[in-house]
Structure formats: C-alpha cells, structure tokens
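Thread: Modeling a multi-component assembly for a lab meeting

Hi all, long-time lurker, first post. My supervisor asked me to bring a structural picture of a complex we are working on to next week's group meeting, and I have zero experience with this. I have the sequence lines for every component (974 residues in total). Could someone generate the structure of the whole assembly? Inputs are pasted exactly as I received them:
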Amino acid sequence: MSLVNFSLMRHELLLTFAALVILTAEIFWNPEKKRSISLFSIILFIIITVIGFIPSPSGSLFGGMYEVTPVRLIMKNILNIGALLIFLQSVSWLNKEENSEKISEYFILLISTLAGMNFMISAGHFLMFYLGLELASIPLAAVAAYDRYNNKSAEAGIKFILISALSSGVLLYGLSMIYGTTGTLYFKGVAELFANSNLQILGFIFFFSGMAFKISIVPFHLWTADVYEGSPVNVTSYLSVISKGAAIFILIIVLYTVFPVIIEAWQKVLYVTAILTMTIGNLFAIRQNNFKRFLAFSSISQAGYILLGIIGGNQLGMTSVIYYILVYIFSNLGAFGVVAAISSATGKEKIEDYNGLYKTNPGLSLIMTLALFSLAGIPPVAGFFGKFFLFTAAAQKGFYVLVLIAVLNTIIALYYYLLVVKAMFINKNDKPIEKFRSEFTTRLALGICVAGIFITGFASIVFELIRSMSFGV
Amino acid sequence: MDILTLFVVIPVLTIAGIVSIKDIKQVRVISAAGMGLQLLLAGVLVYLYLTARHSGNAAEMLFVKDYVWFKSLNIHYTVGVDGISVAMICLTSLVVFAGIFASWEVEMLTKEFFVSLILLATGVFGFFISIDLFTMFLFYELAVIPMYLLIGIWGSGPKEYAAMKLTLMLMGASALLLLGILGIYFNSAPDGGELTFNILEISKVKIPMSAQYLFFPITFVGFGVLGALFPFHTWSPDGHSSAPTAVSMLHAGVLMKLGGYGAFRVAIFLMPEAAKELSWIFIILTSISVVYGAFGAIAQKDLKYINAYSSVSHCGLVLFAILMMNKTALDGAIIQMISHGLMTALFFALIGMVYGRTHTRMINEMGGLMKVIPFLSVAYVIAGLASLGLPGLSGFVAEMTIFVGAFQHPDLFHRIATIVVITSIVITAVYILRVIAILLLGPTTNEHYEHLTDARWFEKISVVTLITSVAAIGLAPLWLSTMIGTSLQPIVNKILLLNPF
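Re: Modeling a multi-component assembly
Sure thing. I ran the full set together rather than chain by chain. Output:
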C-alpha cells in the first residue's frame, strides 16, 4: 500500500487506529485518573477530524470495492463533526460515578461504528457496503445497552440488535436477488446490467426496506421510539443524527449511482414513504411526554423531509440532502445537548419538567429554542434554508403535491416544537429545574451547535461547496 | 452600506444593544433611541426618494442594491424601493416608534419583550425593502414567529390559545406561500434562461397560464390570510385581543399590511392574467370580509375585539381594492393600508392605555370617561372619526379613492360588489359612534373611575405621533398620492395591457 492509498483511506485507518490507541491506553492508564481518558479520546478525535478535511484526490482501492470521491469525503467529514459534538456532550455524563469503569468502551465502540459508516459510505461494492453496515450496527447495540443496570437500556440494546439483524437479513435477501439477476455486486456492474425486470425490482424493494429500517422510515420505524427512549441520551443523539445521517448518505449514493435505471420505481416508493414518514412521525410526536421519545418521532419526520430531497434524482437534491444533514446535525445536537445537560445534572427527561426553565436557565432555554426553530425551519436559522432547498429540489422535478404535504407537515411540527417553547417560556412551575452550570465541554459543544445553526444558513459558501461536488442521476 | 440595508441593520444593532446591557430603564431608552433613529432614517429616505424622482429618475425601483447570495439557485439579496414601499416603511417606523412608547411600562421580562418586538419590526422592514422573493419570504417568516412569544408571554386572557392559533394559521399561510414562490420560481423563465427570484425580472416575463391558474390562488390566499381574508381571518380577533398593546398595534397596524402588500406585489403583479380571470372568487370573499367584519364589530362588547373585527373589515377593503386592478383603486388600497395602519395602531394604543387605568375592556362597564381622562378620550374620538371616514382625516381619502376606483368597472358584478362593500361605511359608523357614546360621554358610571389620571408623557408621545400622521394624510393626501402614483404606473400599465377600459 502506497502513501497515496493511505491518504485515500485515512478516515477509516485513523479511526481504527484511534480505537486501538484508546484500547491500549485503557490498559496502561492510571486507574486513579480514569476520567481524563475521555479528554484524551476527544483530543485524538479532534486531530482525526482536522486531518479529514485535508483535500485529497479521488480514487478507488481494492479493485473498485472501495471508492473515494469528493462528495463521499465531505459526507465523512460531516459525520466526524457530528460525532465530535456528541463526544463533547458526553463528557459530563461519562464523569458520573457509575460510568467510571467503562469510559473507554464508550469511545471505542462509537469510533468503531463510525469507521463502519465510513466504509459503508465509501463502498463501491455491495459486500463492502454490507460489511460497513454491520460494523456500524453491532457495536451500537452494545452502547445502547451501556446503562446495563437499567432495564430500559438493556431492552433498547436487545431491540436494536434484533431489528438490525432482521433488517440486514431483508437487505441481504434483496441483494441476493440483484446478484442472481446481474451476476455482480459491484455498484458499477449492477448499474450497467440492471434491466428493470420484476425480480430486480423486487430485489430493490427488499434492499430499500432494509435501508428503511436503518433510517427508520415509516412503516419500518417501530423500533425507533423504544430504542431512543431506553438508550442513554448521548447514544440516542448518536443514533438519531450520525447513524441516520450515514444511512441516508449511502442510500442517496446507491440510488443515484446503482439504480438510476429504475428511477421511476423508486420515486414511487419514496413518494409514498415520504408522505407516511412525515405525517406519522409528526402526529405521534404531538402526544409524547418523554423528551427522548419526542425527539425520536421528530427525527422520524425529519427523515421524511429528507426523502423529498432524494426523490428528484437531481443534483440539487443531493446537495440539499447533504446540506440538510449538516444543518440537522447542528440543530438536533443542539436540542439533544440541552436534554443531555439537563439529564446528567438532574436526571429529568420529561417535557413537563422543562416548565419554567427560562427563569432558571435562560441560556439553555434559548439554545433549545433556536435548535427547535431550526428543526421546524424558521428563519433566520439554518433549518429554514435547509428545508427551503429540500422543497426546491422536489419542486424542480414537479412534485408540487408532495411539497404541499410537506409544508403542511411543517406546520404540525411547528405546533409540537412550540409546545416545548411554551413549556420553557410560558408555563408556570413551582419547582423548576434548578439553576446549574454545565461542564466546559458541554458548553463548548452547544456553542459550536449555535454557531453552526447560524453560519451554515447565512454562509452560502457551505451550500455552494457541497453543490460543486454533488451529482444527479 | 446602502441606506435600505440600514433599515435591517439598525434594529439588529438595537437588539444587540438591548441584550448587552443590564439596567431595565436603559432597555427602554435604547429601544426608543434605535426606533427613533429608524423613524429619522425613514424621513431621510422619503426626502431622498422624492428628490430622486424630481430629478427625473424614472426607474421602477430606486436605491437598488444587489448581492448574490446562493449563486447556484440564483438567490440574491436584492433591495430596492418604490413609492409604495417607501410609504410602507414610513408607516412601519411610525407605528414601531409609537409602540415602544406605548409599552413603556412593561414590567415582566422587559428586555425580552423589546427584543422580540424589535425582531418583529426587523422582519417587517426587511419584507418591505426586498425585491427578491426568497429574502422577502425569509423576512415574512421572521416577522411572524416572534408573535408567538409576544402574545404567549405578555398577553392577556386566553393568551396561549390565541398565540398558538395565530402562529399556526400564519405559518400555515406561509407554507402556502412557500409553494407559491417555488411555483413562480420554476416558471420564471418559460423561454429557457436562468430561473430567478427577482420580482422585477419575473414581471417582465409571462408566466405560463397553467402555472398561473395554480399558483395565483395559492399565493393570494397565502398573503390573504395575513390580510384577514374571509374565511381565514379567525386568528385576528383572538390574536389581537390577547396581545399586549404594542403588539396589537404593530400587528394590526403593520403586519396585516404585509398581506395586502404581498398580495399586490407578488400575486397580482407577477400573475395578472390569472388574477383577472380568478379575481371574482376573491372579490366575493373580500366583500364578505368587509361586511362581516363590520357586523362582527357591532356584536362585540370588548374594545379590543371591536377593533380587531374592524381591522378585518378595513383590511378586507384593502384586498378588495387590490382586486379591482385599476389605478384609482390600487392608489386607494395603498392609502388605506397606511391610513388603517396608523389609525388602528392609535386605537390599540388608546385601548391599552384605557385598560391600564380601568382594568376592564368591556364597554358596558365603563362610561363618562371624557370628563376624567380628556386627553385620551379626545384622541379616541379622533381615531374613531378617522375610522368611519370623516373628511379631513386619512380614512376618508382612502375609502373615497377605493370606491371611486371600484365603481369605474362598468359591469354589473363589480358594481354590485362595490355597493355591498360601501354599506360597510354605515355599519362602521354604528359601532364607532356607539362605543364613543357609551364609553366617553354620559355620566361616570363607576366611582372608581373618578380618580383616573390622564395620559403620561410617554403615552402622549405615542398618541400625538400617530394623530399627527393621521391628520397629515387626511389634510394633504396629494403628496402621498403622487408618491404612490408614479410607482403604480408601471404596474398599472402591465395590467392595462390585458384589461383595457
């Protein structure tokens, strides 16, 4: 392997290296100072994130099984940013007494899943794709059950692993049909030999269903709320942002590069699932009381909006999807960051606990409001731009009815986001959450989120940069 | 930096100033200074605008600045004003200025109140200076969302319900608008070429009829909701009556004008063909708005509800006039927007001040206030007379122009609609005079009211600013008419091409 090859694979190699370093460090680390290992891991991860941004040429490795293009690189970098924010937000929770024995496990497992996602995004072959997918899923089940003496956390872990196995099975079944009809699993080969036969369409449907489980698209979303609720907050935010983002990234790559022939078929599938996902996600979110379940359903509906970007099969669509994921990372992690901070300081996770929060913790309330407004698509924050571009992408291909349904859904979404704002600003509470000061890392992460929420919107350079790398069918 | 962008920058700086200081008293001073500066700037803008026009600058929009924003989608930050936008900017700065003084005594969360209020104003100013649909839409939503907090936190009565209803209905309208704007955008270059959000450029092309039939109603209803178009007006009474004084002022005075202005500048201007074909539906709806709003006002006993229904009626008249699509009526529509904006702001300010003293807004619980608080009472009478269209005040000029314009249509449908709408004048007189009679004249019914104090200095500033403006338009309507008229010409020319008289 030459140096160029290293540079092509640096994301995956560095992440694997980091996981090994943390594992080794764990052995030799002074047991008295176990907590500082999280700081060490974060610094290591910052270095990896920065190196990821160094420009590098496109290329492919292992005979085309592994591909690097600018757009895939930027996808990986976006995921790195998100993961970094989550690591920063996790520190105060990891510092708790009950977690002191397993800090490094948290980092090792999450970094492994991130490496898996990077392999998946860079896949040029369905086998590589599948390996990446599994590497991204299995360790996640372990972290979902991180809080192992908590029944709900254990339940989340087992649910997640079962659903992952099931969806992988469905996905593999679809891949086997595709392999059976085309005789190859290379993306390029499948794209060339795909001939729109019924069996192939069936194979595609199975493949899509498998992916739909991972992205939690309705009707494959049933696991989401339970797993999100049971997992520790930081793991939930990882599931809802990074894991979902990676799955959407690879879905759009596969749809655009492998299945352009059957674009009409997958547009129909996306049309129906997008409507279902938005509407059902929104309607269920209204009734939620637990903040994590609330954000779970909100993130389901967000996935529905994202499908609007994919459905057109146009360059603008891919741009807006990648851009929206970036915006979504900042917004959702802003919201989850506040939930995590409050949960680790007081253990409260219900929406009604947030009543009167503005009086005691104005900063956190404002960040939460900004994040929710961004999720709802209210200007001047980035979510507005993100949603606008997603809808523009769908409208460009004439999906006006779908856009109408989507914009009406944003109103439902606005309703429940405003309920939280109302709880924090308007509702009275005799015993509001007491004033507390969160740790430096949490505040840093929230500060980055707020900056991101504003900058990614106004600075058109971000959008144009992504645009210059995206492609259509 | 160009003068128009200053209209957005000054409020933002004011907000930054408010956020950065601790002392509550200074919050008011900074807000007043910032919005005073804004008012001054509006004066400068009028002067510059008129000078430019006198020196023969006949461009459709003046002071145009264009910055590319999202290049690949051809989204620009483009600002520019014509006489109509200048007039609206003046209105906004007057009402905001008066609103700051009307809310001088906000006790709870003072800082947050002024921040939200000025944020709302930022959105409104930005909306009026934009000639790019994207930025226009952005500012529109920016203006709507602070309303939720303003009503929800500082409102009265069923404020949470009202705030949620208002926000969701207006954001629902903006959802329709988003669709309409996208539709216009993707049809902005029917002969090929680059798609654009720029209103002036889109107005030069003819959007295909099939698209117009689809997107004209969507856009018109989208803006119409904000302009209290029947049957989408229901947010207005609840919202206005629950909102704190300054917010009612700003909302009825300015924000509802966004609806009229947008319907005119986007829906009618860009899609006149469909507007002509489909206007009958909306003429019927707006006629209902006008008459229904006036009857609704008669039935109410709460001062704010009366005024809210009256706003539905008057704003309905604006949309009605816009749909008449001739120069006189359009002229009247713009004057009516300004006139109603000032007048209704004055009303809401006075209602807030009266309520602050009597602690009730039910008219049958009050009486004989003229003797106790003469300044406020006289101001109330003036506002009332302006509202029912007494010559010498702004309401008369506006309504007269609208009705003359509307009656220019020779066909039966338009004339009948006009006659129906004209009846609202009588109904308006009924509810206005009734309120004045019960509220102000007669003996003082409640002995607690004997010791009420009259307006204080900051209240006087607020009231006098507005009364002066109302009288100025009433006494000298021509300069406003001229300013608007030259700007209406290109728009009217475009309409005349397909609708010759």
